[in-house]
Amino acid sequence: MNGQTIKAQVINNIIVAMAEHLAKDVLDILHQTIIKEFVNVNMEEITTLPVEYQNDTDQKNKYIVQLFIVKKKIKDNTKQAYLSSVKRLITLIDKPLDRIEESDISYYLSWYEKRNINAGGKKNQAITVNNERRFLSAFFTWMRKEKLIGENPVEATDPLKAIKKAN
Fold it and tell me: How far is CA 10 from CA 1, 136, 162, in A?
């Protein structure tokens, strides 16, 4: 994927595959052991075989989300808030997460702001939309740090101006 090394991809593939079989603390030990053992190993991708790992959008997104769940060390309820935002995004924008662009984020946030109007509700307030933007930004920042993407597409999207209430 994008800028990740082959070694990082292999490590991530192993961790995702083992996540459903091992407890979190054991998974962390496995991850550190693999990293330690791979320090002196060189790897290169075999490009002569038709072995594209996950070319399907849903499969690719499922893989990235699973990798986030396994590797991101934050509180579970914070993680769930991020994942809820990401799931809404990929439901509306049918693209692999590593192909999401600034225009997709702008479109999504505009939709998110107005999503309740059709059901007879009101627009989401700026602070609510900005929270959604912040969750997505944190997720895409994680993807960038993992070298799954080159840049965070949310960074170019400005937050909405929120009206401050008087005390």
Answer: 11, 26, 44
